[in-house]
Design a protein that fits this description.
heterodimer; A: 107 residues; four-stranded antiparallel β-sheet; B: seven-stranded mixed β-sheet; 50% strand; globular
């Protein structure tokens, strides 16, 4: 099983600032990586797939990069609605696995 | 716009079988992959498994011995059974899919909380 490790566990950011979230895979997943946003009481929402392709309707301030084992999700200018938990997920191998999440909180 | 809705008992006794159904509306269930994912309170996401409408499955090895998935194309539904449950199986259970393939998940149900308790 591929283990996905996200860092940091919690990121404190002021509105308008840039947030950078990291995700590392225990072995290469090529570009088969997705990012999700989850708010309390809601299902996750797909943000990014293919490591860098924004899903339909996702704001341009969200961007993804990386390949192989190292990935980054960047939120260029945090809006109030962006404070949430973010998960990465690999879909290169079975079973599909998720990172443990990064909580982005208001500083 | 496809919508997914989970249904089933919210309370299951230890050692019994958890049974959930996901109803798909606004789109066809045929020729696509359908997954179950769970999330214990305050914790991360765990992929349970997926089923194709032909009936072929992939299960998470950590749960494989206890999981059975099935699909009913006539009802546009797919189902999850998890046997011999314990308190560790208490979680919000989501059904999810992508019409692209068994990769990421761009359609999710709202989730249903299943508590294992006597």
């Amino acid at each position: 099983e591929i283990v996905m490790t996200q860092s940091p566990a919690t990121l404190s950011v002021s509105p308008g600032e840039r947030a950078t979230l990291s995700c590392r895979a225990s072995q290469s997943v090529s570009s088969n990586l997705a990012w999700y946003q989850q708010k309390p009481g809601q299902a996750p929402r797909l943000l990014i797939y293919g490591a860098s392709t924004r899903a339909t309707g996702i704001a341009a301030r969200f961007s993804g990069s990386g390949s192989g084992t190292e990935f980054t999700l960047t939120i260029s200018s945090l809006q109030s609605e962006d404070f949430a938990v973010y998960y990465c997920q690999q879909y290169n191998n079975w079973p599909r696995t998720f990172g443990q999440g990064t909580k982005v909180e208001i500083k | 716009q496809v919508q997914l809705q989970e249904s089933g008992p919210g309370l299951v006794k230890p050692s019994e079988t958890l049974s959930l159904t996901c109803t798909v509306s606004g789109g066809s269930i045929s020729s696509y992959y359908w997954s179950w994912i769970r999330q214990p309170a305050g914790k991360g996401l765990e992929w349970i498994g997926r089923i194709y409408t032909s009936g072929s499955t992939n299960y998470n090895p950590s749960l494989k011995s206890r999981v059975t998935m099935s699909v009913d194309t006539s009802k546009n539904q797919f189902s999850l059974k998890l046997s011999s449950v314990t308190a560790a199986d208490t979680a919000v259970y989501y059904c999810a899919t992508s019409y692209v393939g068994p990769y990421y998940f761009d359609y999710w149900g709202q989730g249903t909380l299943v508590t294992v308790s006597s």
